[in-house]
Amino acid sequence: MKLNLDLGVPSSQEWIDAVMNDFDAFLQDHADCERKASAMAMSFVAKYPDRTEIIPELIETGIEELEHFQQVYELMQERGLQLQHSIGKDPYLDKLLKLCHSGREERFMDRLLIASIVETRGAERFKMVAEAQTEEKMQKFYKTLWVSEAKHGHIFVKMALTYFEKEKVYSRLEWWVEQEARIIQELEIRSALH
C-alpha cells in the first residue's frame, strides 16, 4: 500500500528566491499556514465525528500543527515580527477546494486527498527552505518541519484508505496531483508557502 505521493511538478527556483529575498514575509505567512493546518485537522473532527477510526490521529495532527505555529511565532518574536491582523485567502488552497466534489462522501475523500497534497507540497518547500538557509538553527528547524509535513501527507492518504476502495483513492489522488501541478504553476510567485 503506497501512502506517499509524488508531486506532479517541483517548486521553482524563482519561488525559493522570492522566499529568501523576503524571509520575514514568508515567516508571517508560514505562521498563518500552521494555524490553518491545525484548524483544518480539527474541522474534520467537527464535520465527521462518526469517523472514530481517524479522530485520534486528526487530534494529534492538529496539536502538532499548533506546536509548529508556536515555534514559528517564537522565531517571529526573535525577529521583531508580528502576526498579520487577519489571515488572508490562500489562492492555492482556494483553487484546490473549488475542484472538490459536492456530495458528502466524495467531498470527504477529496478533502483528505487535498490535505495530503498540501502537506506534501509543504514538505517539499520546507526542504528547499532548509537547504537555502545559512543559519544552522533555521536549517534544523525547517528540516524538522519537512519531515513532519511529509508524515502528514502519508496520514491523510491512510485515512482515505480507511473509508474508500484503494483503486478509487489512488485514481482520485492521481487526478489531484495533476490539478495541483497545474495550479502551482499558474500561481503568482510570492514570499509565501503557497
Q: How would you characterize the overall build of this protein?
A:
This protein has 194 residues and is mainly α. α5 crosses α7 (166-186). The longest helix is centred in the middle third of the chain and has 29 residues, at 104-132. The two termini are 29 Å apart. It has seven helices and no strands. It has one domain (13-186): Ferritin. It has helices at residues 13-21, 23-47, 55-78, 91-97, 104-132, 136-163, 166-186.
**Count of alpha/pi helices:** 7
CATH superfamily membership, which one? Ferritin, core subunit, four-helix bundle
Report the radius of gyration as a whole number of Å.
16 Å
CATH fold-level name: Ferritin
The CATH class is: Mainly Alpha
> What is the CATH architecture descriptor?
Up-down Bundle
Blueprint of the fold:
Elements: H1 13-21, H2 23-47, H3 55-78, H4 91-97, H5 104-132, H6 136-163, H7 166-186
In short:
The chain is mostly helical. The protein has a single domain, classed as Up-down Bundle (Ferritin), CATH 1.20.1260.10.
